[in-house]
Amino acid sequence: MPERSDFWSRRRRAVAREERREDAAAEEVRAGAEAQALEERSDDEILQALGLPDPDTLTPADAARFMAREIPARLRRRAIRALFRAHPHLSPPDGLQDYDDDYTDAAVNVRPDASGWAGLRDRAAKALERKMEAEAEAPEEAPPAEAAPEAEPQTAPDDPPAMAMAEDIAEDEEPEEASPLPRRMTFHFEEDSR
Fold it and tell me: Which of 111, 64, 109, 107 is nearest to 83 (CA)?
């Protein structure tokens, strides 16, 4: 049924809204007074008065009781911290935290490798260890006497294109001059005579 728009219908709705506002304000004042009274009491007294278990021995089933509005915020935080400390499986890390590690000391704080890479890393470390042990057990050989470097055989190219390439290579092998300094771009603007 549509609402009537005559004067008295609007007036009744306005009075009902005002009463609801007054009830909400009174409820807020009452809740504030109760919260203030609870804030002044110790945690043990609050737990006994409200019939709540000790937050340090909290189970996930009892956690909802600590979320009520009348529970002081300090007690609620204490219960949540104890719950997640005692039951870490409730908040497993998803691996998507960008700022999960402290990168100010990256040399020491190394994020653990994924399981696939860990096996590869272990195999590589064992192979390196075996190689180092084999080198340590091998008798040391005397360093070879310095031999004259072998000269590459010079062959004369037979076809003309190969001869041309040989000449280009010979020209390229000339001693290089010092490279010129880089040039800077300069701009010149004509002044407008207007």
Answer: 64
**According to DSSP H, which parts of 59-194 are helical?**
73-86, 115-137, 160-172
- pLDDT band for position 157 (cuts 50, 70, 90): very low
Round to whole Å and give the CA distance between 55 and 72.
13
Three-state DSSP state, 170: helix
According to the model, what pLDDT value does residue 172 have? 47
Q: Which residue has the tokens 């009075």?
A: 15
Residue 45's nearest CA partner among 83, 72, 27 is: 72
Cα separations in angstroms, 155 against 6, 152, 158, 185: 115, 9, 9, 48
Determine the Cα angle at 111 with ends 115 and 77, to 5°.
110
Cα 111 from Cα 100, distance rounded (Å): 9
Task: Write out pLDDT tens, residues 24-76.
Answer: 999 989 888 887 777 778 888 888 888 888 888 888 888 888 888 778 888 88
User: Would the pTM of this model clear 0.85, i.e. be above it?
Assistant: no
Distance (Å) of CA 21 to CA 3, 9, 18, 70, 118: 21, 19, 5, 21, 63
